[in-house]
């Protein structure tokens, strides 16, 4: 029993020893972090604000080694987080078709982005050189490549809405000039019975290597309504008749099958529709029948269909 107690005490002493050792090491580490040090840190360069109507092609370097004077905590944060600095290209100087940024200008830009207490001792690089090419801007519409099917007795109420409906392309003239529109990626929506809204990625043609899009995505949305159908009896009208003639069609009215949302269908009247035949299509022939088409229908109607595509006729002179 006594031996057991001794073993427990030894284990507790060992644990306490390691706890004190860890705490003393942590205190030493924190104490050292508050001291100032000098060291070299590598920063990634992020180039912004190129000259108007120009795009950056290449820079003489993409990283920068900088000798700093800072406290240990700041060096620790440099190592834990992404080290990026912005290089403002609007300060670049043009000479003989080339652009460059002097070391003094680059240093001033970096110093503005350093946290308080961090001093730049050595910039570590010479002049930065850049290559640009001329670009143009062009606004083009967005087209949807969505494939949509609806549940039974449902339809799209109106057109698919695309937001935004257009984007601005910015790139070399030989790439941008031939583009008339951009498309969304292919999306398939099946058995819809409710309104929808979905984010679609815009596809970039393989030829657009150096062209940028003002937007990378668009929102496709639409209203889905329950629909019904009804038959409307509509008179047949014949156009382009010769002077001093009258025509009699058989029948003189045809059935039109109208499909629309339930609310819109209630408003449809025969006077909202027009069915016509064009006498010029048979003038001078021995045909005694004329093809029909629907020449007017309400915008809210989803679809219409004729029960008869042609009617017989008799032409009489007055």
Structural account:
This protein has 318 residues and is of the alpha+beta class. It has three domains: 35-133, RNA Polymerase Alpha Subunit, Chain A, domain 2, CATH 2.170.120; 136-222, RNA Polymerase Alpha Subunit, Chain A, domain 2; 227-317, RNA Polymerase Alpha Subunit, Chain A, domain 2 (Beta Complex). Helices cover 19% and strands 48% of the residues. Strands 11, 19, 20, 21, 22, 23, 24 and 25 form an eight-stranded mixed beta sheet that branches. A four-stranded mixed beta sheet has the order 4-1-3-7. Strands 2-8-6-5 form a four-stranded antiparallel beta sheet. A hairpin with a 2-residue loop joins strand 5 and strand 6 (98-101). It is elongated, with a radius of gyration of 38 Å. The protein starts with a helix and ends with a strand. The model is unreliable at 21-33 (pLDDT under 50).
Characteristic key phrases:
RNA Polymerase Alpha Subunit, Chain A, domain 2; 5 helices; alpha+beta; four-stranded mixed sheet; eight-stranded mixed sheet; 3 domains; 318 residues
Quick synopsis:
The chain has helices at 2-33, 72-80, 103-113, 173-176, 262-267, and strands spanning 36-48, 54-59, 63-71, 84-88, 93-95, 98-101, 119-122, 128-134, 136-143, 146-150, 154-156, 161-163, 166-171, 182-183, 187-192, 196-201, 212-213, 217-222, 224-239, 245-250, 253-261, 274-278, 289-296, 303-306, 310-317. It is an alpha+beta fold and 318 residues long.
